[in-house]
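Before the break, one more example. Copy the sequence into your notebook; we will annotate it together after we see the structure.
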Amino acid sequence: MGSPRISGRQGAVGHRRGALVANAACLAVLMTACTSPGASAPSTGQAPSAAPAATEPKVKRVVFAAPVPTGESNQPRNISQPAMWQISPTYEYLMGLDPETGKLAPQLSTDWKVENDNAIRFKLQKGVQFHNGLGEFTAKDVVHSWQDITRTDATAGYQVVLAKRTIGNVEVVSDYEVVFRLKDKDADLLNMISQAEGGMEMMSKADFDKRGDPALTAAPIAGTAPYQFLARTQGVNITFQRTSYKHWRKSPDFQEFEFRWIAEPSTRLAGLLTGEIHLTSLPNDLQTQAEKQGFKVAKGKIAAQRAYLNFKCCFLSWAGHTTADGAYKYPESPLMDIRVRQALNKAIDRDALNKAFFGGKGAQMLGFVHVTEGQLGYDPVWKTTYAKDYGYDVAAAKQLLADAGYGPGKPLKTKLYIPNGSPYADMLDAIASYWRAVGVDLALSQMDATQRNTLSTNCQIDNEIDLSNPSSTLYTAYSFYNSSLIGNCGGYQNAETDAIYRKVQQELDVEKQAPFIKELGAKTAANFANVPLFWLPSEALYAPTIVADYPWPGSISGIWTHIDNIRAAK
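Here is what the structure looks like once it is written out:
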């Protein structure tokens, strides 16, 4: 059988609306974790000084239109990393991220130092003020922020790692010095508590003591960023305003900033054309139209965003989520069969998907979805094994299914999860068509994102496939989607690869990790642990009459970060 026709929910690719956004925000789905480039060496540099006076903008409020976040909340511990962008403009971190280089940089700490592989010492900025006159940022706010993020009722599973496995406690040395005492070594820890990954936002203890947990109709707990919360209308937008006082670090060009939720790409394009919005992301075909109309493209500086599928089935059993016992939780799941996982891989024509949904901009992702060419531990031999083991071959896919005991009289039954409003819905529909073409009896799973996240967190999904598109480091993405080491159920797990990955985690000398990463990549790919798709560009369209530029990494949690860097046109 030839390649199935690639079609979206509203017709053929050429006429689809709401197609997958090649440059969309990392909003799509089911990720309890998504993050940044690798951590740099500890900094001893000085804190950045306040920026010069801002350029006088042509509008009071700059508006960024984005698809609706997967969940709305004003409580960081209850927002998954891919959706943290909705309130991140109001917060700062112990360590920032340089948008040009992807290196960690001083922010609320002036410097930091790893001590004896079991502690990290931070010296804090002095004189930094919380919004709304809530006083100076000090060590007590660091302790509060960590304790809040790691509460047992937190629903954003990534943050729990910071207490359950990695950080034992945060010790106050003085008002301007803290020490993180570690339970375990983790090569990604600096990223996890910095702006590089997001999820450990520094919040005001005084504000929390006064108000408690904020409702969605109230302001988030106060932060220290150049923008502070102004208002939220659920399902519509969230707005921020520049601090009225001189901010310690910088002053944004625009007095106000708004994230406006607009799901339909054609509506976002219309908003650009009418001047109602000033920045957004669009599918490739609409982006081309906008560029012809004079709109410009800001490109993320760091390549890391990617899209791949996870097998929700193959979880190592846990005793109280503290120790794996080596057995699988759902041994009867059809996705446990390696022949099934390979068949589902070989049934997909990725070149056709790339052209249809990304305009050919997607870069080939190999069998190991967490490392690409030029990154630490990359092995050129992966290209050869990928072509042989993963290449599009309908006949081979059918034979693998037959070898696994499936055929016309007994089709493979599984599910593909498509979140409501996902910008990736059309691509997932096309993948479903490829699988059905080789005889898979595929159901489409759709449910409320909160309900789905609860099932995933509790490891209650035994035969389903979902999409992830993190912009994360190897460390965090592998931990969440392919290992059992944090008690997570993000995707396929294997005791042998867990052991190899543990070697990577325990080696804090980055260069010494390379041979372990090569070994990990080869074994993970041989297990067909994922369905690799594409490494993607991060792009934002902007109106050059209003915006001069938007320098941002484009690769950290939630994609849309560093919004105080948006520069006004003169």
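The domain at 309-535 is CATH 3.10.105.10 (Dipeptide-binding Protein; domain 3). The first strand starts at residue 7 and ends at 8. Try to locate both features in your own notes.
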